[in-house]
Amino acid sequence: MLPARCAGCGEGAGQLCPACRALLTCAAAGPAGPEPPPDGLPPVHAATPYGGPVRNLLIAHKERGALRLARPLGSALAAAVRSADAAGAPGAPGAPLLLVPVPSTRRSVRERGHDPALRLARAAARELRRAGRPARVAPVLRHARRVADQAGLSAAERHRNLHGALTVRPRTVALLHGRPVVLVDDLVTTGASLAEAARALRAAGCPPRAAATVAATARRAASIGLGR
Ligand SMILES: [Zn+2]
């Protein structure tokens, strides 16, 4: 059964009304992320600022199991990946992009019933391939230890909470070497999770060339779509 109201605006018909869909498909992806960035954060590109209907759509997908939103949100993520890829250091032309999602904790996967960033990464990779850019998802990161809930922590506390929290699964390191790696997540706020994910990849000898998210909360989100 279709939900009566749009998950973005609460008014339009269907799970995603045309106006909210347009917010995702017409988004102008560009550089985003916190200012100043945390140490080790690669260049971050986002499809759209976080707020209003976009915020509601990401929450509906992440927390309320609105899984059919993965495709439109994944298309927006694909636009951010393209933007990040275009701005990154030159790599082997045509080499398949590896999208590495920031992993959820096992506990939140259990509570939500899915891993939102992994699902969006898969949808983005499908969209990139449809558009002729070879891409695949490499879910190579895992938690090396338990972390506290990030909600309510300051940027410095988030950094301390997360430092050393992620690691690359040893048997997947060979998969990454020499490949263009783009970290992906649904949202960038302080950049602490992406910076930790980048640290773990660098420690394994596979530095990511960039990071891409559907949305960005930080102050620089205001610059998305400008100057490009
Ligand atoms: Zn709507």
Fold topology:
Blueprint: H1 18-25, E1 30-32, E2 44-49, H2 52-63, H3 70-87, E3 97-101, H4 106-112, H5 116-130, E4 135-137, E5 141-143, H6 155-162, E6 166-168, H7 173-176, E7 181-188, H8 192-203, E8 210-216
Helix pairs in contact: 3-5
Question: What does it look like?
Answer:
The protein has 228 residues and is an alpha/beta fold. Helix content is 37%, strand content 17%. The protein has a 6-stranded mixed sheet, with helices on both faces. Strand 7 (181-188), helix 8 and strand 8 form a beta-alpha-beta unit. The protein is globular and about 50 Å long. Residues 6, 8-9, 12, 17, 19-20, 53 line the site of zinc ion (ZN).
Summarize the structure.
The chain contains 8 helices and 8 strands, in the order αββααβααββαβαβαβ. By secondary structure, the chain is an alpha/beta fold.
Most strands sheet:
6 strands, mixed
User: Strand percentage, roughly?
Assistant: 15-25%
Q: C-alpha Rg, in Å?
A: 17 Å
Helix proportion: 25-40%
Strand adjacency order, main sheet: 1-2-8-7-3-4
Mean pLDDT: 88
Global shape: globular
Number of helices: 8
The helix-strand sequence is HEEHHEHHEEHEHEHE
Contiguous low-pLDDT stretches (5 residues minimum) are: 220-228
* Quaternary organization: single chain
Gap between N and C termini:
41 Å
Number of strands: 8
Structural class: alpha/beta
Bound molecules: zinc ion
